[in-house]
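Example 3.
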Amino acid sequence: MKLNVPTLASLKEQGQKPDVVFWVGCAGSFDDRAKKITKAFVKILNHTNTSFAVLGTEESCTGDPAKRAGNEFLFQMQALQNIETLNRYDVTKIVTTCPHCFNTLKNEYPELGGKYEVLHHTQFLKTLIKEGKLKVEGGTYKGKRITFHDPCYLGRANSVFEAPRDLIQKLDAELVEMKSCRAKGLCCGAGGAQMFKDAETGEKEINVERTAEAIETKAEIIAAACPFCTTMMTDGIKHHKQEERVKVMDVAELIANAKDL
Amino acid sequence: MSYLPNFIFLILIIVGGGIFLRNILRIKRNINLGKAVDRSDKTALRWKQMLRIALGQSKMGSKPIAAILHLIVYVGFIIINIELLEIILDGLLGTHRLFAPYLGNLYHILIGTFEILALLVIVAVVVFWIRRNGIRIKRFWKAEMKGWPKLDADLILYFEVVLMMLFLSMNATDYLLQQQESHYIQAGSFPVSKFLRPLFEGFSFNSLLLLERSFWWAHITGILVFLNYLYYSKHLHILLAFPNTFFAKLVPNGKFEVDEHIKKEVLMMLYPDRVVSETSSAVPSKFGASDVFDLNWTQLMNAYSCTECGRCTEACPANRTGKKLSPRKIMMDTRDRLTEVGENLNKNKGVFQNDEKQLLHDYISAEELWACTSCNACVEVCPIAIDPLSIIMDMRQYLVMEQSAAPQLLNSMMSNIENNGAPWPFSNQDRLQWANEQLN
């Protein structure tokens, strides 16, 4: 099976316009682990015959890591160029699998002239279910203990707490919460451009602290909703030598697997 | 001669109130050293936010024990202050229990309620003290709490116990006076202070009168001293929590400010042909913040409002894992530097004399700033909507845009974004490669 991934440019050539643009993000495009999330999400988009397109080579970093690192200039350069591209295609609706892209596109682009309806993929998937386009049953995950790690830029930053949890419930799984969850969720350690630098000296790494909480729940799966969280949590689990017992997966992967896509 | 006490009281109120007013004006002046930021929008929503968070204490509930204790002290102090109105009028008019004849039975109920609240406040304050000094809850013993912050926290508790004890002792002696002399105003019910009576039994009428007057004067003087102590204390939050929540940002936590000056520059650079309609305002003298002057006034008000409870630091992932960063310290440092600047202004007739110091490096180190994950845990957990993260981000901006002093790996990340539109060194031409790769 091959994925069907139209680009905005190719659709425009045919005089078409997609309902929604899938903003893949840098991690989703280049990082080997994150690419699996991207593919899982596209499988669901293809399965539900969703009219979508990606920007492909016309996509560029939203500027989030530059902004959080303190380089407002570089952030705005990126943002204004992306907005130029998006507006050229008259984009109105964007879905993304990265909460950092989600936050930046949704909250920080409007003032720079980029006004779109922006959804995180967990919100989008929930809509697909609600509209009856996607049917999810437990399958492989029925009765499994799953804990959800709230990405900071999805949860605390934008108050999206329920959409990913609702999706996990749809899998007939047993959703268990970590000691710090929802608005009090503990960061994985990657935000604020930390992903791209070494941590300052301390007693331990943040992802080690966070995965200890996850292991405490005795969950078999840590569900994530952010490519950076996925990486950090996977590394944390490895640190605790629990990789045989605990898997870290994006909610989109869980759904794609449950549906055997 | 008989008006002497009234006169002394008037002087006391004028001096106490006057110094307080001067202090408030100084705080206001210092806050206004911050840069302008418009928070005059959505007034209705702001009132709601203030009523919910400050008056309603909606964010305290996450720590139920502390929330209940805090509520007792808060309600106790507000309600007992009704009594303060009578005390002030009595002092000025030379009367005693002025309201008693007008309120009748209600007066008994009120005084009885005040006494019960006073007892509850004492109990709560004792528990607070035990939590700090007996159980030694971790957030009260972090590095930044050494010295004055620790003493300040304890002093506030002692103040509160002493004030409540004076109030109760005053009532206990007053009751005994009422018993001894039938022409002495008979008023009030004393469910709590009656237990203090044995301490004063057997005293003559005159000794009791002297004691009662001493407690009365010590109580009102204590309140005025406490009021003026606020200026030096973290306890300012009892006043500033209200404006602080009113002017707090209303947008999602994740939305950071987009710099308008930079926007103009970038627009001109990218699209020189497009006319920028607005008249270009002066280019800022620096990007980001290295001192309190570069922060905006709400950030400075945040610093004065912080009561150093440490919930932010407890929630901070960097601090939890032993890094130097403590959001509470960011707020304390900002206030300390602002106080220093304020004193500089006081000494130099309102003109700041360069003291070769700044917030960055002299107070807050780059190491602290770079440890932040911008996760918003500190912002979310603050009971009065303080935003330490915005200060961290502004200072990072100064480090990067003014000093190019980012950690080396972040410089690589940024040059990658600049050169190939991704934080990693991949060619943008390969962005869609995943679509053609083998599935799983």
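Residues 4-31+63-238 of chain B form one domain. The mean pLDDT of chain B is 95.
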